[in-house]
Every structure is written in structure tokens, then in C-alpha cells.
Amino acid sequence: MKDNGKIKFRLRYILKKELPFRSLFVCVIQIFTFLVLPILPSILFAYELSCNGEIKLGKDFFIQGDYSSAIYQFKRVLSLCEEIDIKQDAQYFLGVSYLFANKQEEAEKQFISIIEAKDHKYAEQAIVMLSFVLERQQKAASTKDYLSNLLNYNFKDNTLRESVHYKLAWLNLRSGELESASEHLREIKSSTELVQSAKELLSATKGYQELPYKSPTLSGFLSACMPGAGQFYVGRPKDGLTAFIVNGLFIGATVQAFEHDQEFLGVMLGALELGWYIGNIYNATNSAHKYNRKVREDYWKGYKDELNLNLLINNKGELGISFGFKF
Q: Is 150 a domain residue?
């Protein structure tokens, strides 16, 4: 109360006594000094508190799975707040929210803008997150090329580098490239969470080589000798029976046409039968490939890829990287 009294007295003194002898500018400066400066820290604290509250609200939306609201909220933070750390948090959260909302083009643009920004604290995370965008766009070849190029990047965080090896290993495992997958898994040495998973997957590759595959060549050969036989070989009896009956009917009809001197009809039926016959061989070969693919997928289901290199929010509302695995 005494301080307030002094301020009021000083202000009255300035207005009554000194104003005639001082410039208006000096007067304004003095008023600002006595009235605004004492409450300026409170104003700045309220501004910072408001921005922190705004970004926390966006995180809450994200945790609840309301990605549309999270996207709106992080955009709002970017428009309202000027503090660099908060803006960078919002930029990264916005990219991940786009990713989870299945807005892959927007996510790609957001992560690229983070990567291209100077000294962005989430640049390395954004580089790796971009691979998730490519994967969700079902660009397996592009994802593999992109991740391979990332191995030349000088990561400050070795966990991120090893996560690239882990992701590449999974892409190679799914495509049956065991040797390449094993090489990437052997590069994982320091990350506590990833090392155990890499060991499990390396061990699993031995059993993978002993899976009961079907030979596409043999399947096609069997169907060439007897239509439908290749389909029976790969465990598709309905397709095999259909191929056998259709080809048998066309062959019988073709023979009957020529026996009754109906050459034109015989040629037409023979041409149709040739198409069915070739299709039967192709179907048998393709069925073997499908069978083998299913065998691989079923085998790896027990070793689910759960590399969650995604933005997570803990109870304190902080950003982090989490790795989770299910075996």
C-alpha cells in the first residue's frame, strides 16, 4: 500500500509540477516506468501460460484420438504464440496429427518443412517420421530407398539411426530378403529396446528358411499336365475342380465339333480352350505365390512390427519416442 501511495504521489507530481518543463515524450516514458513495468512480468507470464495451455489442449485432443480437433488446436497455437520452443512443438505435433488422421500429403509437407527449417529441434524425428508417411502411402520401394539413404545421415541420436535399420529389416523380412534383413538387425547394438527385438528376429529367420513353401514352377507344370492339378497341389481344391471341369468341357466340345465336320466351330472352341488352358497354368503358378506369401505373413504375425517411432505424450504432456514390441 505504501508503494502504491508513492506511485500516485509521484504521478501527481509529474502531471502538476514537471509537465510544463518536460516534453510529452519524457512524461509518457515516466508513466510507463511507474505504471506498466511493475506489471509487465505478470503480463508475459500470462501470455506464456496461455500458450502452454493451448498446446496442452491440443495434446489432450491427440491422446483422445480426436485428431481433427488436435490439428485445429495446433494450428491455433502456431497463429497465436511466438515462443520458438512452443511453435516447434506445435509444428511437430501437427505433422504427427496429420499422419494419424490419415492426411498423408499434409503430413509429408509438414515434416518436410520441419526438416528444411534451420535448427529445428525435431528435425531428426521428422526425417524418420517421413518414412512412416511413405509407408502409409503404400510406397514400399520408395520407403526402402528413402530409409537406405537415411543411413548416410549423421544422426545425433543413435537410437534414431538404429530405428532406421530396424524399419529396413522389417521391409526386407516382408519381401523375403533374409540376408539383407539380417545385416540391418546386426547393426542394432546400443538401443536397449531394439537390441532384444533384433535378437528375436535374427533367431526367427532360421525358422523362416524352413517354412513349407510350394513351388510355383511345379504348380504350373502339374496344371499343364492336367488342368487343376496345380491348384490341388497348393491347397485350392475348388479352383482345381473348376479348372478341370471347364477345360474338360471345352476339350470335349472341340473334339465333338471336329468329329462332326464342324471345323469352324471346332477352331473357335479350340481357341477358347487354349485361353482357358493357359489361364489355368497362370492361376496355378500365381496360387503358389499367394500360398507362399500367406505362409510368410502368418509366420511373422508372431513377431509383429511395433516400432512406435511416433510422437507420444506422457502424463506430463511431454514429447517422447517410444519403442514397443509384441512377440
A: no
